[in-house]
Amino acid sequence: MPEFTLWDIVYNLLLAARWTVLLSLVAFIMGGFVALVLLLARTAGNPWAMRLVRGYVELFQGTPLLMQLFILFFGLPLIGVDVSPWIAAMLGLTLFTSAFLTEIWRGCVESVNKGQWEASATLGMNFTQQMRYIILPQALRIAVAPTVGFSVQVVKGTAVTSIIGFVELTKAGTMITNATYAPFTVYGCVAVLYFLICYPLSLYARRLEGKLHNVSR
Predict the structure, then answer these.
(1) Which residues of the chain register pLDDT less than 50?
(2) CB contact set of 179 (below 8 Å; sequence gap of 6+)
(3) pLDDT at 1
(4) How many CA within 13 A on the CB side of residue 144?
(5) Would you state the pLDDT for residue 212?
(6) Cys-Cys link to 125, which of 73, 120, 153, 189 (CB 3.0-4.6 A)?
(7) What is the DSSP-derived secondary structure letter of residue 79?
(8) Which residue in 196, 169, 162, 151 sits closest to 19, CA to CA?
(9) How many angstroms separate the first and last alpha carbons of the chain?
């Protein structure tokens, strides 16, 4: 490895890992906000809103994230909208995240006993009040574990953004490999860093599932 020590490699990968973490956080927060709006539209009982949300979810779940990023990064400039790799990566992962979180949270809402809906309706609550005071607090307890577990997929999904030139952990690994000619060492370090980011999230999700199981018994 000419002029590159192991510390040089790790240090530069750590700098790139900051962008991986930042992109994951932004996409997860924005995707969660969009997913909440879609969830409310999906469960409000309006047939047209339900169809639109279902189509949105099926579109982004049924197409590869790579293709979505290509369309955003290379397609939008064709209609006069120039986007940077960061913007395209953020939008792509936000759409990807929102589609999956919408389905995760919908399942959690539907797992709440229907009697809760009926009881709150007899108290004169409208849909917004039912969701705010009765349904969402119960669904939230169920949703925490799978939501945290899905965050691992978001982190790993950031690796795909290297294809459009966004310099995150995987892209930095490729660039360092081209300079050092040491792919095994570099990508080994990349794998270790991904593991160090994702494993605590996976472990936390399993612990939450265990707590939920104990509470529900």
Answers:
(1) 1
(2) 4
(3) 42
(4) 13
(5) 67
(6) 120
(7) G
(8) 169
(9) 57
- Phi then psi for residue 145, to 5 deg, are -65, -50
- Which residue's entry shows tokens 């006069």? 80
Type of residue at 58: E
Say how many C-beta atoms besides its own lie within 10 A of residue 6's C-beta: 12
Label residue 205 left, alpha or beta by phi (over 0 means left) and psi (-120 to 50 means alpha).
Answer: alpha
CA separation for the pair 48, 57 (Å, rounded): 14
Spell out the residues 6+ positions from residue 13 whose beta carbon is closer than 8 angstroms to its own: 169, 172, 173, 176, 186, 189, 190, 193
CA distance 58 to 60: 6
**204 within 8 A of 151, measured Cβ to Cβ:** no
Instruction: Write down the pLDDT at residue 123.
Output: 86
Longest Cα–Cα distance in the chain: 75
Locus of tokens 């982004």: 60
